[in-house]
Amino acid sequence: MVFDFLKRGADDAKADMPGEAKASATGPVIAYGNAGRVAWSPRDTVSLTRSGFSSNPVGFRSVKLIAEAASALPLVLQDDQQRYDIHPLLELLARPNAAQGRAELFEAFFGQLLLTGNGYLEAVLGEDGQPRELHVLRSDRMALVPGVDGWPVAYDYTVGSRKHRFNVSEGASPICHVKAFHPQDDHYGLSPLQAAATAIDVHNAASRWSKALLDNAARPSGAIVFKGADGQAQLSADQYDRLLSEMESHHVGARNAGRPMLLEGGLDWKPMGFSPSDMEFQKTKEAAAREIAQAFGVPPMLIGIPGDATYANYQEASRAFYRLTVVPLVSRVSASVGHWLAGFSDEAVKLKPDLDQVPALAAERDQQWARVAEASFLTDTEKRSLLGLPPLAQDQ
């Protein structure tokens, strides 16, 4: 019939149409003027890491505390039907490369994420297209290349004058990019170091001031007053230079602390004491240290900062540290890494932390298990779902 002919023509025309491409409407706006170019990070990551981590004990301890606690958290792999004890992804994570184990790999990954706001994981693929090794790449060497739709099409890894480009526009991406939330950057994450940059400068300046004070016999300096015979005379140029030379060689520095000073006629030593404002530097240093720890989400009590009574005891501070900082970080990173690795084999598996094996959260988990177990109006399948467990085989 005519209508069937028309219908067949419409179907043929529909088949000849290209597939629908879905993309964000704001992508071309973000990529305007930047397509094919490197999107550079807005802050000098190297300098910030040097001053806030390598040269600051509070920043160093905060990053190490979070990275070590997060990397030690046990991970589980499961799908909608079961939890896996043996799986190729678990074997890969247990020994990601020849030089690192799971804890070392994730400690480096979490450290890069905390220091720069960005974490990059590289997958080395075998002949079958499956990951054989995982490597953490330094964030300060990585640069993202956005495409015309705003999404990354490549990552440039630069070491000195050499550059390697990872193309991510076709197939599974060899790079897993996890970034922290940044309200003003579409491609890079915001590091806690950037939020705590002012407090880090204050803390480092206070440390340098304390060091200079120790070099000066742990007390403020004084003044040498020359009165002369009539009270109006001045030192000659030779006398002035000789006095400076003797002061620098015999009375300045920690090794000369406490050495008595021999003054000739007309010279008088006037020591200077601390003013009340000078005595506040220690409180300023402690306040800056507390701000650095708060930027990272570490309770000040855990890194030995005095004067903080927010937590009743150390045990509560440890629970808050895991509940508010470590667990959210590991949950977000493990979900991203698990989804990325599952994409190579098209498996619907999830990677997440096993909270039942975290000693600091044992009391809370016991209460949750008891509450769920006593809920008689719930079925066993619903109880297992509330606890994050897959259903039993007979329930499926």
TrEMBL record:
Domain of life according to the entry: Bacteria
NCBIfam families the UniProt entry points to:
portal_HK97
The protein's name is: Phage portal protein
Print the organism lineage. Answer: Bacteria, Pseudomonadati, Pseudomonadota, Alphaproteobacteria, Rhodobacterales
